[in-house]
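Thread amino acids onto this structure.
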């Protein structure tokens, strides 16, 4: 009877410890994201590395790690870690975006474009990153002097995030480069309505007005 009571008591203690451990584990996982949002990127990287060492399949940790590496301009490391993580799950859209972004900043335009296109094919139109991805695609097309493609990409970007004055400015620039000065002027004016001190939009507006 005594041994049975010990077994019951031991089971109760174990259950309490397990129940207590679950929130603690979740708290550790959430800390990295919290630190990232607080722009404490080095601390977030340290936590993510520890989490990945403990669980190499932790895609959440890989995602925050890559975001933090990008935020600290460690693009080559971000590219390497995102590539590593995608071997575990190639359909994680967070890692598609991070890998595309890392490649964008490394100047690997075609590889970045391919990854962004893959992201769009797999992500929801309501994804919080969809506008940013379209923006980066627009910038790549500008780099490649494919201004009509840039117009399409930037147009999609501002549909997703209509308050980004700089994105409207870049849309105006892409349209201006295609010779569509009227539409370019509309985009520049929208940018200035959002931010009256947007220098590039001011200059772009003046150039287009001279052409019309």
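Threaded sequence (212 positions):
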């Amino acid at each position: 009877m005594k041994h049975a009571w010990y077994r019951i008591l031991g089971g109760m203690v174990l259950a309490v410890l397990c129940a207590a451990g679950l929130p603690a584990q979740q708290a550790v996982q959430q800390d990295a994201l919290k630190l990232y949002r607080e722009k404490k990127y080095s601390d977030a990287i340290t936590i993510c590395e520890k989490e990945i060492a403990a669980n190499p399949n932790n895609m959440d940790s890989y995602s925050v790690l890559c975001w933090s590496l990008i935020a600290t301009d460690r693009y080559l490391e971000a590219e390497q870690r995102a590539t590593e993580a995608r071997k575990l799950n190639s359909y994680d859209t967070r890692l598609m975006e991070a890998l595309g972004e890392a490649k964008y900043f490394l100047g690997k335009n075609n590889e970045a474009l391919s990854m962004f296109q893959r992201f769009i094919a797999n992500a929801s139109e309501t994804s919080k990153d969809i506008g940013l991805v379209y923006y980066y695609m627009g910038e790549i097309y500008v780099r490649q002097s494919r201004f009509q493609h840039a117009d399409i990409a930037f147009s999609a970007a501002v549909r997703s995030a209509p308050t980004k004055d700089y994105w409207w400015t870049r849309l105006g620039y892409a349209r201006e480069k295609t010779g569509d000065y009227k539409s370019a002027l509309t985009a520049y004016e929208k940018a200035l309505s959002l931010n009256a001190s947007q220098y590039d939009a001011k200059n772009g507006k003046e150039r287009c007005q001279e052409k019309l």
